[in-house]
Design a protein that fits this description.
Helices cover about 30% and strands about 25% of the residues. By secondary structure, it is an alpha/beta fold. The protein is globular. The protein binds adenosine-5'-diphosphate and zinc ion (ZN) (2 copies).
Length: about 775
């Protein structure tokens, strides 16, 4: 009789590992690896996942004690290789095994079971809402002569997307709100043709291929070098990694497309991950135009039914190219030849709920397990990836960096000016806008062009800053910026937990610890104030559009504001980080960054890297049209390497300084870092749990070289919804089994009523 190793989906950290069950003959065909089964555990019915099957009974257990699988609830969703990767995730990210398996399950599958009556079979609850839409839209030849009204921006967006190739209407709707109505309107005019069909070949239809995005005649030298490296990595079949380090517009996507073509020719498929925000109709269209309905799109904005349908296309082998956000990594593609992660530096590749995995790391593990190659692309690669390429080898895989420093054809880099706001202040400037930025804005108004103003919103007003020298008080023990707490007028360190009354820091007689100025104030302006000052500065006929959390709360508001900006003749778009996408408008000739440095002051070692990435992204996108762009960066910290690097278009200026600091302070990529957050209503219990955990970790590794426990301390967000939040951080050597150690310590504490704990390995969010 065969046996199945089953991971139970019971929410407890202590239950790590699989349990063996016998498979009755009548279930043998179904109770295979990857299936969801019903079993009995501790006298209760439980849902579990089969991670392996074997013929021999498990050693050390009397055969008559082994219970049988009672029912198969869902067919196989993953294979044994995927099961091994899930087991790796559970250890690496210190989460229960079932939580690591869930991302591999079919979209919509729930853990709960129900049954109609006491003797009816159990059924898994599933959510498959949303009818599957098999309508495909494509442009007709009439589209060449059709010019939509200037205000019909949805129609224009749809046409632009379809120029890349035919697409499913459901996908268009996921990326362009209101696309379905636009398609109907365009179909009435004969511009778009809608057909119901399951399969569409992109290549065997002349009207389709004539509308598709052109394939470049010749690849650039950089592209060829990247492709050769990817081919070599694929041939090695051991999870080798190629980092395509190319500026925006250097043709990275074109490299991905060519590499996928080659993989497909070898009978292997590809998983392509893009950040949620870049998963636009154009991106999807580009992949569809090359690979037709071999492409499955997994997008969180698709209905569950839609996602299930796409997932099923992959499982059945009909789709061999999967394009999606983070979770596309878990699609049931078996013959994986390539895994591609675009914009690999993006923080959104780290999942912020359990399993708290980083897509880059799971992709590397998956590529190794499947004998595939991993391709990482970015204009601003993460320090982790750069470090591994410098080392050449990481966890047995070869890491290679290929540079693509140029754009095909001629392109001009925008002029970047860094304005020192402390100098402006000393010169009497009290406005949000420095003289250079105010003048540049007035020029834009005069020339009837468009500008984008970026306001760095994160970390706002939580700091005291000297307006004369830009200094922010730091903890003398942790060199972390101190956050300001209005209540009690206190400065607190969120690494070590120390705090000071403002007047006593660093000595009671002065205000600014650096220059002695008394202009030490909570610093921060909101988008609203920027908008108000803009209206005062600019003539009335310049449209000012504000985009932030307040103005985009309504569904579709984001898109509507962008459309308004697009349709305007002369306008300024003011917004938080979320407008970074708005920078793609070709008529934008000026990009201003109102406050480049607020993020630098977050108690987060990646603050400088994020600032640099954001500024570089801004600088790389301005002036994409005919006219050269101008970028003005306002900062109180003009000497910061991130500012100097962006101004000089020289990444090394930033990297050298940042790496030296990370090495000195023992942070990634030179070490690993875990953040464990504990929260609950009873502050006393939160404190004692945190203290005990810190003691457990110290007891285990306290004296080992490279290990260090920081805290416990209050979280930056110290109280959320009446729950107290404390955290501790654990630093470990770069090759340490951090998840194994911290996970075991967390398990040793046992479950505690009213106390929640989140173990975040290789944490990105330290708040
Ligand atoms: P990235 O992904 O790096 O931003 P893309 O692949 O989107 O760059 O390429 C930017 C633009 O350059 C696209 O319009 C693309 O069609 C074009 N392009 C890419 N490679 C070439 C090439 N070898 N020759 C000419 N144009 C190219
Ligand atoms: Zn401190
Ligand atoms: Zn000062």
């Amino acid at each position: 009789m065969p046996y199945a190793s089953v991971v139970l989906d019971i929410p407890t950290r202590a239950l790590d590992g699989a349990f063996d069950y016998a498979v009755p003959a009548e279930l043998a065909a179904e109770a295979v690896t990857g299936s969801t089964v019903l079993v009995t555990f501790a006298g209760r019915a439980a849902v579990g996942y089969v991670v392996a099957t074997h013929e021999e009974p498990p050693a050390g257990v009397a055969p008559e004690k082994i219970r049988a699988v009672e029912q198969v609830l869902a067919p196989s969703a993953f294979d044994e290789t995927a099961a091994r990767v899930a087991a790796w995730m559970a250890r690496e990210y210190a989460c229960p095994p079932a939580e690591a398996i869930r991302p591999f399950l079919a979209p919509g599958q729930k853990v709960r079971v129900t049954r109609a009556s006491a003797d009816a079979p159990w059924e898994l609850q599933t959510e498959r809402a949303g009818a599957v839409d098999d309508r495909w839209a494509r442009l007709t030849p009439a589209a060449n002569d059709y010019e939509p009204a200037r205000t019909a921006s949805r129609q224009r967006a749809v046409i632009e997307a379809l120029r890349q190739g035919p697409q499913r209407v459901a996908e268009l709707s996921a990326t362009i709100p209101g696309a379905a109505a636009a398609v109907t309107a365009l179909a009435k005019r004969g511009v778009v043709d809608v057909t119901h069909r399951r399969r569409v070949r992109g290549t065997d239809d002349t009207t389709l291929s004539s509308a598709a995005a052109p394939r470049p005649e010749r690849l650039t030298n950089g592209q060829q070098a990247a492709l050769a490296a990817i081919d070599a990595a694929r041939t090695a079949a051991r999870g080798d990694v190629v980092l395509v380090d190319g500026v925006t517009g250097s043709g990275k996507t074109e490299v991905y497309l060519a590499a996928i073509e080659r993989a497909l020719a070898d009978g292997r498929g590809a998983l392509v991950l893009v950040p949620e925000i870049s998963l636009t109709a154009q991106t999807v269209g580009r992949f569809r135009s090359r690979f037709g309905d071999e492409v499955a799109v997994l997008h969180s904005r698709l209905s569950t039914g839609e996602r299930f349908d796409q997932w099923d296309l992959v499982r059945s082998g009909r789709a061999r190219v999967v394009v999606g956000a983070r979770s596309a990594l878990f699609a049931p593609l078996r013959e994986v030849g390539l895994i591609i992660i675009d914009e690999e530096h993006e923080g959104s590749y780290k999942q912020d709920k359990s399993p708290r995995y980083h897509a880059r790391e799971v992709a590397a593990e998956l590529a190794r397990a499947r004998g595939a190659a991993l391709v990482l692309g970015s204009a601003t690669p993460s320090l982790e990836s750069l470090a591994r390429c410098r080392a050449g080898v990481f966890r047995g895989a070869r890491w290679t960096r290929v540079e693509m420093p140029e754009r095909p054809g001629a392109a001009v880099l925008p002029r970047v000016t860094v304005v020192d706001m402390a100098e402006q202040f000393r010169g009497g400037g009290r406005s949000i806008f420095s003289a250079p930025l105010a003048n540049a804005l007035l020029d834009v108004a005069r020339r009837r062009e468009k500008a984008v103003l970026l306001l760095n919103r994160r970390g706002f007003a939580n700091f005291l800053m000297c307006r004369e020298c830009g200094c922010v008080p730091e903890c003398p023990h942790c060199s972390t910026a101190l956050t300001y707490h209005e209540r009690g007028h206190m400065l607190a360190c969120h690494s070590c937990g120390r705090s000071w009354p403002v007047r006593a820091f660093p000595d009671p007689s002065t205000s600014c610890p650096n220059c002695g100025s008394r202009y030490l104030a909570a610093f921060g302006v909101g988008t609203q104030r920027v908008e108000d000052e803009l209206r005062m500065l600019l003539p009335e006929d310049v449209e000012v559009i504000r985009m932030d959390a307040d103005t985009t709360r309504a569904k579709g508001a984001h898109q509507r504001l962008l459309e308004q900006f697009d349709a305007a003749e002369c306008a300024v778009l003011v917004g938080t980080q979320m407008i970074a996408k708005g920078l793609d408008f070709p008529e934008v000739t000026l990009v201003g960054v109102v406050n480049a440095d607020t993020m630098l002051k977050l108690p987060d070692f990646r603050a400088a890297e994020r600032t640099y990435d954001l500024l570089e992204q801004v600088a790389g996108r301005a002036g994409r049209g005919e006219r050269p762009g101008e970028v003005i960066v306002q900062t109180y910290w003009a000497t910061h390497p991130a500012m100097r690097a962006v101004a000089a278009h020289d990444r090394a200026v930033f990297l050298d300084a940042e790496l030296a600091e990370r090495a000195e302070a023992h942070y990634p990529p030179f070490a690993r870092l875990a953040n464990v957050t504990v929260w609950g209503r009873a502050e006393k219990d939160v404190r004692s749990t945190c203290d005990e955990l810190a003691a457990a970790v110290r007891g285990r590794v306290g004296d080992d070289a490279g290990w260090e426990v920081l805290g416990p301390a209050e979280c930056v967000k110290a109280r959320v919804k009446d729950q107290f939040r404390r955290h501790l951080m654990v630093k470990a050597p770069a090759d340490a089994d951090l998840g194994g150690v911290v996970g075991a310590c967390a398990v040793s504490l046992g479950r505690r009523a009213g106390i929640n704990m989140a173990v975040d390995i290789d944490a990105y969010d330290l708040m």
